[in-house]
Amino acid sequence: MSPHRTPDSSRRSDRSRRAIHEAALALVGEVGYARTTIEGIAARAGVGKQTIYRWWPSKAAVLLDAFLDMAARQAAEADASGGGGEGGIPDTGDLATDLKLVLRATVDELNDPATEAPTRALTAEGVVDPVLGAQFVESLLEPQLQLYVTRLRAGQESGEVRADVDPRVAVELLVAPLAHRWLLRTLPLTHAYADAVVDHALRGLSARG
């Protein structure tokens, strides 16, 4: 007879967490944030709602954790493939090319039907919930912006960016226009627009002879 094996509770917990994350993202995309409930997430994930409340205080917290998990997995995949993406901004020696590559990927992510509704919901909830908003900025947004800061500092060292430029301020010249157009839905968010943002921003950041 094979020996009795004690169930691996950590693996079971990981599976449950992943199921809850996927359920939360899917439901917000399908029915909207307002109509998404802890009960609905639990039913979709095949767990009891007390399981969710044991790990998270609210559906907003579930959604934020789902995004952090998704970002971590994307970074791991990018590192494994040797690419940039979420794991870092490539440094080919051509700052404009590198920034356009990453901003185009950002456009694709913001336009992705699978993540657009959850991203909008989390962004809006962070405005009315200062605690969640601070967690969103600290855990998700700021680490991604720091990747741009690192690449711009490398541009300063190579002479592509003026030495007197504040990289953290310069980042907002690149990402804020995309966020503005995406949030307000004023005009289509496209690769061509991302390229134009980079070109316009670098005219003000580049070193002049």
Automatic annotation (TrEMBL):
Domain HTH tetR-type: 14-74
Keywords: DNA-binding, Transcription, Transcription regulation
Record flagged with keyword Kinase: no
GO molecular function: DNA-binding transcription factor activity; transcription cis-regulatory region binding
DNA-binding region: 37-56
PROSITE patterns: HTH_TETR_2
Protein name per UniProt: Regulatory protein TetR
Originating organism: Streptomyces pratensis (strain ATCC 33331 / IAF-45CD)
Lineage: Bacteria, Bacillati, Actinomycetota, Actinomycetes, Kitasatosporales
